[in-house]
Write a structure and sequence with these properties.
Elements (H helix, E strand, L loop, with lengths): L17 E5 L1 E6 L9 E5 L3 E4 L6 H10 L9 E5 L3 H8 L4 E4 L20 H8 L7 H21 L5 H10 L2 H8 L8 H4 L8 H17 L12 H6 L5 E5 L5 H20 L6 E5 L12 H6 L6 E7 L2 H8 L1 H9 L3 E4 L5 H11 L1 E10 L8 E10 L13 E6 L3 E6 L2 E3 L8 E3 L4 E3 L4 E3 L23
Parallel strand pairs: 4-9, 4-10, 5-7, 5-8, 6-7, 8-9
Antiparallel strand pairs: 1-3, 2-14, 10-13, 11-12, 13-14, 15-18, 16-17
Helix pairs in contact: 1-2, 3-4, 4-8, 12-13
Length: 465
């Protein structure tokens, strides 16, 4: 709380526990932020930024990325939907490992994720997609895929995705059945039975469906020789940042593979609780498949050193991908929500619920039909601080920053300009301060018409429906 007049004018800086986001204050209900504040502190835990295209998410995220302070042993995993993060990181001179379907820095190898064969079934469940059709074909195809992975793992020295792809391209159903039923592979016979030549058209259907799905997944660089694994990166990142660059052209078929890569990173990140790990996940609602460990990352990860920074364009799309019940559970676990311009009704509802309400006292008077004295009644009425339509009219960079147990702040977040040659400052834990910070805040980006905004003169904000 503001216990001293000097706190009103203090300069807010990043700390080991908090980001410091520069602001032009417009109002709010927070004890630690006022019209004199130059920035607002945001806990370095689960952070959500939500806003439509052009609302200012990328500019806001520049402040977050600029203040990420990691040491070489701490992994940072970025799921990049639109290359925004890559541009920011490259501007900082970060050492990036880019994994995608094309032009990857390293080629991902499914077999390098295996510590032993017991991992194969989990990987198959993660990357081999189901569908809304016949569950027999879905389950049989997944089991067949897992069986071929085990077969190649046993038969090929140092296997790669290229070996797996070639096997599926060049092996017909009858030969595959014979391989999986041969001596030394008796445990694969049950999976092989789905393509038993004596099973007729059913076997042909299972084989052709699985073959097409494998071809869709092992596309481009994911079907080539490689040695990179999420498991080994999370164990020893060597100061590099892992960027999972989502190829939108293959989005409909390759989404399960990217969801698996994120899940695998979360799993291994949680395995080392005495070390921080950072997850920057951009517009995950557009992935169209669910990240199974996302709830674990948000709700458990913060207690195990894992920091989640998640962006959304729309709560409605999140509900469409994860279901409304699960989507609400994910949103409730976010320690901080930064709400920029939103358009859909679900996003507006989330924004208003996160900001909350206040009570105002109203006096109602009734005139008598006869005489001079009427009745008078005073009531407390619950009021929303923002009308529904206001969120759809926010200007780029205008946001409401909601922090659990610390209130909300309505502000403009100015743009950040960083020269690519700038050296990232480091945190001095002894002096509780950052050193070598040469960042420049570009305050001139505020539009002239904001200076006359009547809301600036009313910090407490009194809005109704």
């Amino acid at each position: 709380m503001l216990t001293d007049i000097g706190d009103l004018f203090r300069t807010v800086e990043p700390t080991a526990d908090n980001f410091a986001i520069p602001i032009e204050y417009r109002g709010g209900r927070a004890d630690d932020v006022s019209i004199f504040s130059n920035a607002v502190q945001i806990p370095r835990r689960s952070l959500l930024a939500i806003g439509t295209s052009g609302a200012g998410k990328s500019e806001f995220l520049k402040h977050i990325v600029e203040q990420l302070r990691t040491n070489p042993t701490e992994p940072t995993v970025v799921f990049d939907m639109k290359e925004d993060y890559q541009d920011m990181l490259e501007a900082r001179g970060a050492d990036i490992i880019r994994i995608s379907a094309d032009a990857s820095d390293y080629k991902w190898n499914l077999f390098a994720e295996l510590e032993d064969e017991s991992d194969v079934d989990e990987i198959a469940r993660g990357i081999f997609p189901g569908d809304d059709g016949d569950q027999f074909f879905t389950n049989a195809g997944r089991q067949l895929f897992a069986a071929t992975v085990k077969y190649i793992f046993r038969e090929v020295e140092n296997p790669t995705n290229a070996d797996l792809k070639r096997y599926w391209e060049r092996t017909d159903a009858e030969t595959m059945y014979e391989d999986l039923s041969s001596d030394g592979h008796e445990d694969l016979t049950a999976a092989a039975s789905a393509i038993d030549p004596n099973a007729g058209r059913q076997a042909s259907g299972v084989y052709s469906t699985a073959q097409q799905q494998v071809s869709d997944l092992l596309v481009g660089d994911f079907g080539r020789d490689g040695a990179f694994s999420i498991r080994e990166y999370m164990a020893n990142p060597q100061g590099r940042i892992l960027v999972l660059d989502y190829p939108n052209r293959q989005a409909s078929t390759i989404a399960p593979l990217f969801a698996f890569l994120i899940d695998e990173a979360i799993k291994h990140g949680m395995d080392v609780p005495d070390r921080s790990a950072y997850f920057l996940l951009d517009e995950i609602e557009h992935l169209d498949v669910t990240i199974d460990r996302l709830s674990e990352l948000i709700n458990v990860g913060r207690g195990r050193g894992c920091q989640a920074i998640i962006t959304l364009q729309s709560v409605a799309q999140l509900y469409d991908t994860y279901s409304k019940e699960r989507g609400r559970a994910l949103l409730s676990g976010m320690t901080t929500a930064v709400i920029l311009r939103v358009a859909d009704s679900d996003s507006v509802e989330f924004a208003r619920s996160r900001i909350g309400t206040h009570f105002e006292e109203f006096t109602h008077r009734e005139r008598p039909d006869v005489g001079f004295f009427g009745s008078e009644e005073t009531k407390l009425e619950e009021q929303h601080d923002f009308a529904k339509g206001e969120f759809t009219q926010f200007e780029p960079g205008e946001a409401v920053i909601c922090r659990q147990s610390k209130g909300w702040v309505h502000a403009y977040v100015p743009m950040l300009e960083v020269e690519s040659s700038d050296v990232a400052p480091e945190f001095d834990s002894r002096n509780d301060a950052w050193t070598g910070d040469d960042r420049v805040m570009e305050d001139e980006q505020i539009d002239d018409n904001l200076q006359d905004d009547p809301r600036r003169s009313n910090p407490t904000l009194n809005r109704g429906e």
